[in-house]
Structures are given as structure tokens and as C-alpha cells.
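Two proteins were folded this term; both appear here.
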Amino acid sequence: MLINTKIFVQQNNIHKNRKQKVTLDYSDELIFYKLLDQNIESGKTVTITFPNEKIEKDSGLYKRIACCANGEDFFDQMVSLAKTAIDAYRNFATRNIFGLWKDNKNLTLRMLYQAYKVDYAFDNKTGTYFILLAPNGEGSDSKAWMSLA
């Protein structure tokens, strides 16, 4: 069984950094998603500001928000997880190591975002919409996971 220590590291980071707030301006660029993923992994509360536009269902931000604890209905999450499992099995059967690596990376990212909750709001002062990604719990100060690394 593979245990991804990123999940344990994130819980420890949430315990230390959950009160730190970071604001990012939405962009459908790779650098935006890298910064977002790094801040989620480091356990910070993230505010994403964006213009009054509809977020496309196939955008990276929508896919990440859907992985949050309250981001998508339970049934939809189960269907998405089943699709990931089918893709992983297909890659295993065809001995596609790069496909398996990509599936593992996507599953890890889903689990990291699962530790967060999402809220949508409008700021009257600035006239902008924003998405608030906040840790769903207190995290853990235990470092017992370090023996796994």
C-alpha cells in the first residue's frame, strides 16, 4: 500500500499556517494553479478574487473547487473517484507507468483539496467576487508521519 506523506505534511501545515491568509487574482495560467496548489499544500487560507464571470466547468479552478469538502455533491464525487480508479486500472493493465504516475498525482491533489472548504462571496467595498478556500479543520501537530518519509 502506498502512503502519500503529502497528506500528513499538509495536516501539520494546516495546524501551523491556517491563520495565514493569501490573496490570489484568478488567472487560467499554469503559474496561478502552481501558486494555488502550493498554498493549499502549505495549509494557508486562500482568497481568490475574480471578475464577475462564470467559471467554466472544464477549468482547473472548477476541478479543484469540486474536490473541496463542500465543493461538489457526494454522488458526483463518487462518480469522479470511480472514473479515476478505472483510468488507473487501465494504465496498470497496459503497463503505462506515466499514466499511473499522472493518476496518482491527480488523486493526491484531490485529497489535498478535500481538507478544505469553499465559500463564494461578494466584497461590497471593492466590488469583486471572491472564493475563499479555508482549512476544514484544525490540522494535526503530530509529526509521527515523519517515520514514513
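Next, the second protein.
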Amino acid sequence: METLSEFIRRYARVLVGQEDFEIEEIKIFFSAPDPKQPGSETLTIEKEKPGEANFQWIAYQVLFTKGEDYYVYSVPLNSNGNAKLPDKVFESDSNWSSKSKDRPSKKVSPGDIKRSIPKLLKGPELHPSRDIQTIYINTDHSDKGSSYSSQDFKRLFDNDFYVVLNPKSKELQNPFGDAIGMKYPKDEEKKEEPAK
């Protein structure tokens, strides 16, 4: 167990930016029909057509180093891409070893990572800048395990065919957050329309 003085020293290092975390690679998992033969599959069939969707975010992982040690920060995602706690950090190697994924790291906490690289973890950032290698991995049965670079992911999934599952919003969006078609009115808005 960490003593109070160790905790204060670690927290002080974070405040003055001496954690020295270096990002190696990011993996983002999602589920969507195969873009090479998408057909008309949907992930959900709702009573109303606007509720149908065929894309959902699954998980977000960052492989990073601190000194010579490798770690993975991992957070599951809600279908619309928002972080779904709990997040965790586990020890790894340069090949994304997940042998320790069920044993959280005692040296580095999720809070340490969030304070050091807030831009990539606030949200989290599903479309990182080009200077960080990002791999998108499909978990859908039609394309299971296929991986895409940032450029390929944008080219294949930034269109009006892919609709992100978002039970909290009636606004249809593609994986890049762009609105698709019209915004469907909420029930309250429908009731307020004047009678003809």
C-alpha cells in the first residue's frame, strides 16, 4: 500500500509534469458491418426507423511507456463513444500483451494518465491527431478482427451509411459526429405542432 509521503511525491510529479509518459499507439474497438460489403445490416431494430443504427463504439486503449516500462490504459465505451467506467491501467509490453489485464498496475493509476494526457482521454478522443498511430479494430461478425489506419477508417466510415447507436439522442450521427439527415422531433415537439 502506498504511504502518504509516496502519494504526495507522485502527485507533485504530476502537477509539475514530470511523469514522462510517452504514447506509443492507440487502439479503438468498434462494431459495424463490413465496409467492403455493408448490405443493409443494422445492430438494433427499433420500433421507429430513426432508432435504427449500424455502428457502435466498444473500447479505447492507449499503449504508453514510462521509462522502459510499458502500460495499457483501457476504458470501455458506451455505444455513442462516451467513456464507461471503470477504466484501468495494466502492465504490458511493446506487443500489447494482455497477460496482466485483470491485475491493475500498482505503479500507475488511470488518474495519473488522465492528468498527463487529458486531451486524448477527455471524451475519449476517438479521432486523434495524425502524429499518434491509431488502429481501429472491428468486432462485428461480418468483419471481425479487421484493422484500419486512421486514414482508412475515415475513408470507409465517414459517410451517411454508418449511423452511431445513441439511445440518449434522437439526432442521427455518423462515427465522426456529423449529423445524418434531419433531426427527428421529440414527442413534446410533435404535440406542440398546430392542428390542421
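Strands lie at 21-31, 56-66, 69-76, 88-92, 134-138, 147-149. Residues 4-15 form the longest helix (12 residues). These notes refer to the second protein only.
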